[in-house]
Amino acid sequence: MALRSPRSTPCSSWWDGCRVRARSDLGVGVSLVVSSQRAEDLWQDRAACKGPQAAVFFPPPHFERKDEKEAREQRAKAICATCPVRRPCLDYAISIREPHGIWGGLNELERKSLLGTRVG
Fold it and tell me: What is d(CA 76, CA 105) in angstroms, rounded to the nearest whole number?
């Protein structure tokens, strides 16, 4: 049975699947769930930062003093230290040149430095 004319709705987040509505050649409506996640990104489901503690991984919307930033980053890095997918997280952040937040236990400047070391 060949499917045609898929119409998808936007995913609610990067780790959720998308719902797709398609019609078969027979004219019968078929509802499918198609993952919007690539196989190499499945590490995100096992990340220790998922949930309410994720806020410490990114700067707040208001001004943050240096000591507040350092304390927030240390809390985030402590979570990273226990994470089973720390390396894939870091590799992902470096591959997309993520400019914000703590990823794989490193902040923006640390990742930039590491990227310079890998390239140079």
Answer: 7
Most distant CA pair in the chain, distance: 64
Q: In what order do the strands lie in the sheet with 29-34?
A: 3-8, 18-24, 29-34
Whose tokens are 């990823």? That residue is: 103
Amino acid identity of residue 80, one-letter, is C
pLDDT digits (tens, 9 = 90+) for 10-65: 333 333 333 333 444 445 555 444 445 566 668 899 999 998 889 999 999 999 99
Strands in 1-120 per DSSP E: 3-8, 18-24, 29-34
Please indicate, yes or no, whether the overall pTM of this predicted structure exceeds 0.70.
no
Q: Indicate the domain borders of the chain.
A: 3-37, 40-119
